[in-house]
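User: Second chain of the day. Same drill as before.
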Amino acid sequence: MLLLLAVAATVPVSPENISSSGDGDLALFRRIVAEMQGGASYYAAAHHQLVTSGYGTQSVFNWRLPGLALILSVLPSLD
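Assistant: Same format as last time:
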């Protein structure tokens, strides 16, 4: 485990790997919440957004628990 952390810490983060176009995970999560505000269930909205955004749906690591999205979907939008 420590070896994995040491290797990960030595990998440089280059600016081209950081998404500034709004197409990253945060933008995906916002689109999921927006679909939920429109009446979709979490898993239906997440599946739709994962597929349309080019993310895989078979890995369990692409699926999040619905708690935060449920809370955010009932709150007023800050945009």
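The two ends are 41 Å apart (CA to CA).

User: Great, on to the next one.
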